[in-house]
Write a structure and sequence with these properties.
Elements (H helix, E strand, L loop, with lengths): L2 H16 L4 H7 L4 H11 L3 H17 L4 H11 L4 H17 L4 H13 L3 H14 L4 H11 L3 H12 L5 H10 L4 H11 L5 H16 L3 H10 L28 E2 L1 E2 L2 E7 L5 E7 L4 E9 L4 E10 L10 E7 L5 E5 L9 E9 L5 E9 L9 E11 L1
Antiparallel strand pairs: 1-5, 2-3, 3-4, 4-11, 5-10, 6-9, 6-11, 7-8, 7-10
Helix pairs in contact: 1-2, 2-3, 3-4, 4-5, 5-6, 7-8, 8-10, 9-11, 11-12, 12-13, 12-14, 13-14
Amino acid sequence: MGITGLVLAIQTSVAGAFASSGPAIALKFAPFNAGARAKLAEQIGGSEQGQKVANELASDAIRRDPLQPVALRILAQGLDSQTPASQERAAALMSEAQRLSRRDTLTQLWFIQRNGARGKGAAMMQHFDIALRASISARPNLFPFLVTASTDPTVRVVLIRTLSARPGWEKAFATYAVREGRDLGLAAELAPRLLDARQPDDRVLYQDLLNRLVQAGRYDVAWNVYQATGAMPKDSRAPLRGGNFEGPDAFPPFDWWFSEEPDLFASREHASGGGLLLRVAASDDQSGEAARQLVRLAPGIYQLSARMGDLPNDPAEWPTLRIRCAPDDQLRLVSIRPSGAGTAARQVNGRFEVPDKCHFQWLTIDLAGDGPPQEIAAWVDDIAIVRTH
């Protein structure tokens, strides 16, 4: 290879390396590189003068290489806001740009906006699909637009149908909708279609969605998502899950949540007579909820009961079971605790009424600790909620 060939090779390599990220640098080495001229036109456009220069660069890029989709798109953008004839010309240029390459995200965005403005939800969704299939890096920027677009009923139907066909970006979009998306209703609608609660990663997403829904006070939607996990039979009428602490806690807060703080914790332990019970402990002036579960009780009269044991001498340190309406913390329905200390098991009971507008309730095991940890922590077991007449 002679000097001339070596210089040409260097120019070509540098132009190729910087054509997208630094087109001005690329043009210093290869002034006639069509790709670099097209990219530079893209960066210059904006003001009226900038658009004029961009059009000149784009036109020159096309003369040198007609297969430049970015240059075609630049020319189309310069025409788009003018007369109807110019708009048709812009559409023709954009269609040609798309024919040459489907990987240019901004071309797809142009079609998305055009079809959206014309109320063509299905066509708009088609271009979202093309862009999201073609570019993984574009997904974080496109997903928020897609969530906003899905507020249109037509787009929402097409979106769900597209995702159900597994286009390759469905899991990434479901993850975004669950963890970051503003439309929790959409996330709840997608979860049963796209997530499998038997898979560890999907279980985490289900839990994230439940947490967001409960924090937002959307208990009904959260309940439907919980049922979709399969953690609870859909025909089950049990008002409380795992009252004997024997089963797994698949999806809190509809299953048990336990505190794991150093000075306030709850943990399962084998009982001397077989089975499991819940040890609860608090110390060093720590107090709060050692365990909680969100339950769904219809209006009516109920009986709350439990067994407790290994109770310390100080009554202030005894476990207390409470039920209150969610999210109204002030509307407390019942509070029960043992009547005396001692190691022996004690039965505790309390009667309460659920009012009409109290659709979900928090069941909590509250605890307080004044001094150092007790040598033997108190336990709670066999919690039950039974409807009475």
